[in-house]
Amino acid sequence: MANVVSEGAQERGTRTLRAVGALEAIAVDQGSPERVHRALEQALVFAGAAFVAVYTPGQDGELLCLVESAGVPRTLYGLRDSYPRAGRSPVAEAHRAGRPVSMGPAELAEHAQARRVPSRDFHLVALPVHNGGGCLLAVSESPAGFNTDDRTCLELISEAVAVTAPAALAEGGELPPGAFSLAMDTGRVRVGDELLDLFGLDPVEFDGRVETLLGMTVPEDLPSLMSVVEADHMSIGDRELEFRVLQPTGPPKWLRLSGRLLPGGEGHPARLVGTVADASTLRSDVTDVARVQRLATALATAVTVRDVGNAVVAALRRPLRADRIALAELESDRLVVTVLDPPEPEVWPELWRTEWRGEWPDAPVRAMPTLAAALREGRARIWPAGSPLERSLAEVGPGGLAVLPLPAGNRMAGACLIGWDAPHDFGTDERALLTACAGLAGQALVRARAFDAEHELVGMLQRQLLPRRLPRLPGAVAVARYLPSTAGLELGGDWYDVIPLPDNHVALIIGDVQGHSAGAATLMGQMRTALRAYAVEGHPPDVVVAHANRLLMDMESDLFATCAYVDIDLEEGSAWCVRAGHLPPVLRYPDGRTEIAEAEGGPPLGVITRADFPMGPLRLPPGTVIALVTDGLVETPGTDIDEGMDRLAGRLAEAAPADLGLVADALLGDAPRSDDVALLLLRYDGMDLRPLRETWTVWRVPQAVGHARRFARRTLRSWGVTEDIDAVLLVVSELVTNALVHTDGRVRMDLTLINNRLRVAIADASPRSPVRPASIGWEATGGRGILLVEAVSATWGTLPVSGGKQVWAELVLGR
Prior knowledge:
This protein is α+β, with helices and mostly antiparallel strands and 815 residues long. It is 34% helix and 28% strand. The chain is built from 23 helices and 34 strands. The strands form 6 sheets. It has a 7-stranded antiparallel sheet. Strands 3-2-1-6-5-4 form a 6-stranded antiparallel sheet, with helices on both faces. Strands 20, 21, 22, 23, 26 and 27 form a 6-stranded mixed sheet that branches. Helix 1 packs parallel to helix 5 and helix 16 packs antiparallel against helix 17. The two termini are 65 Å apart.
């Protein structure tokens, strides 16, 4: 025994020494922006923390604001991004007292500042950060919380973190040469002198507006840069990206931005602080001939009208230093604009804005006679500054306007308008470039228009075969996405379904039919319908898949299908998974870990008549996300599908599961689209209130109805039900009598109570459902039972189950 204790103490000492070594290695790199985050990660490794964060005083000194964190999302524990320094939160108390503050589940439940997640117990400790004037907060899900050695590691980490630099930037301290501090509410930015040199701006002339800096970026890089400088697109932590800025002469310059969003708290704006550094330069500019060749290459691979427009803009606007460019399709006497650069409506003519319909303007050609004449002539027209033009065109290019009709055979497919604000000199080479680009773009536009029309038809047909909306589930949230392939125009065979089942079960199904054709899409619809029918009948998952396999074999189709079927018990958080040649589910647990389920699989559907489809168990703690995908998301030419599944698991681990829609969009962000893609996500949160259930087998004896009534009465009394018992017993009598008189075989009664809603269900071996009589004469001897059930129940109905049917009625007690 003494040896065991000695070994345990030695292990704890070794753990502390390892933590000291790791923190010393991190402290060496004082200039690294990741130093604080790397120090916090040591709490996850050496102190067993599930979440750790650093809070520092905000701009007004009244709030303690979150500046860095590591571990699972803080929202799982109800933690906030700022706390009042004078409040009663553990963070504020530790900061004021200068000593650690610890709380367990019982204390957190009573604490006014705690917002605990149901069914999740955790321990919390807050330690002051003396050298930084902040506080270190750590959370443990261990039943015993943090032990002595864990606290020693946390104290070492609180001494190692130093977050004064971001706070100084936010509070108006002196900026380093390449640093900046941006107020997210006003767009005012403070910058260092070296940063202005990178943008080619004079410090005396700089107006302090972020729009001035954004206006110097290459247009193609502006969306990614805007995603950083808009607060809605950022969360606490570091962000980094590269972008280009235009130069007075020569090619654009590459810059690298590293930034962090700091919360401002109530009454104070959030601030984006960071640095901008030179990231080398682009290669030298290319010739006009090379631009035409590059445009031809881009148009050869452009499949949609939007792709064509983007290729034309990329080829013309920056080389011509144009201020605006629009590409539009010609439909009858109207120009339907497909690409505007820049996209803001206020920079385009007022006439266009009055005709704005949806995302793009729909400008009438008759209101622009100069444009109509250019389209009739079918050749490029150029008007220098000062040319007499109608207002709707003069506002496009007051310093010069070029109109390029886009020919396609013997007709005009559309037009491209290019405008300059300052007077522009049109050289001979520039005119040749415009003419060459117009001819290429016209042919590409016709091809893209045909593709868009057919692809929209294909997508519409495909969507009609998939669920319009997913059901609302008790204790869970599900989202789905489907992306048709852009590699062709044939219908795909990917499908998904979410099927609510009795007793708070739900079935998740995802599948893929071999090939891309009308036959594959038809078979997909048949298989989805069959699986839903078998599932609703009440069969277990392996039987549902086996029935679908036998059906596909009987259809004698040349195609086969794969599918994954997961039956989830939303009350217990357990599930059974069946795979028929399909990819396994990917699970993301509440602590951020991901796992590819090791569920044994069977063969694809439609291959072997007598195939076995084993069921594999899954455990779903509250907060778990389960992901089902088709191979179009994880398989690309030249890569192994296992590598794709590992990448999917890694990206799912990085996602914040609070908003499943955003998670799904992130997972599909770089989908290859060479194949159809289906994605189905479900987050299991756990049911706040579980129903009460009891079951009674009704034997065919003379006193059967009386036995059923006594069982129902005893059950209701044990549940504390004292009202409307007579109505319940009347429903039990009528439904049990109906089953005994009109059916043979076993009869089972199920009682379910949740809140004040009672469900009485009688299952028998007959598939025939009771029929509500239209009218009953005074001399009739039967048929009144269903009318009585309907009169005293809130609702009633029947549903098929394996080997028969179930007649049910729901009563609201205590109305």
